[in-house]
Design goal:
Layout: H1 6-22, H2 27-94, E1 98-100, E2 105-107, H3 140-148
Antiparallel strand pairs: 1-2
Helix pairs in contact: 1-2
Length: 167
């Protein structure tokens, strides 16, 4: 016989609860039986909480590592930009357009022409782009307030869900 999963144990506990409440048993027997039958669910729930805690800790460690690696990558990218700019500046000062080194061929080249918009307010309208406005979003706070005060809001309703709290 294989071990029950958490959901199977919970369903079995619910089934036994339903049967016992319909049966003619005294209060102490009902309490003792339910307490004994709750043990597999409680044990599995405890184990779930241990796994959840471990995964949360691992996720936080990964998040911190991502942040550290992001800062490290940005520092490296900044260093690369500095070194490229320094090399380009040195070649321009020396008047060198090209260096053929044993491992690299280095050259200072002209970039394609680029537009420098130094005063956007002076541009004629045909040179401006007008992005479409974002679609409207429901204002959930005002919808909730309206429904709670008795108004009928078509397309919306108040709901209440549950959440799991582990302390």
């Amino acid at each position: 016989m294989s071990a029950l999963t958490l959901l199977e144990a919970a369903a079995e506990y619910r089934h036994i609860t339903d049967i016992l409440q319909d049966a003619d048993v005294d209060e102490q027997t009902l309490k003792d039986t339910l307490e004994a039958e709750a043990w597999p669910v409680e044990l599995k729930a405890n184990n779930y909480c241990i796994v959840i805690g471990n995964l949360e800790a691992s996720a936080e460690a990964v998040k911190q590592m991502e942040e550290r690696l992001y800062r490290r990558r940005k520092a490296m990218e900044g260093r690369v930009k500095f070194l490229r700019d320094r090399l380009k500046q040195a070649m321009e000062i020396a008047g060198m357009k090209r260096i053929d080194a044993p491992q690299f061929s280095i050259s200072v080249q002209m970039n394609p022409t680029a537009v420098d918009v130094f005063e956007p307010a002076l541009l004629p309208h045909q040179y401006l782009r007008y992005p479409p406005p974002p679609p409207p979003e429901p204002n959930k706070a005002s919808i909730k307030e309206a429904i709670e005060s008795g108004a009928d809001v078509p397309g919306a309703r108040l709901t209440r869900s549950t959440k799991l709290v582990i302390r």
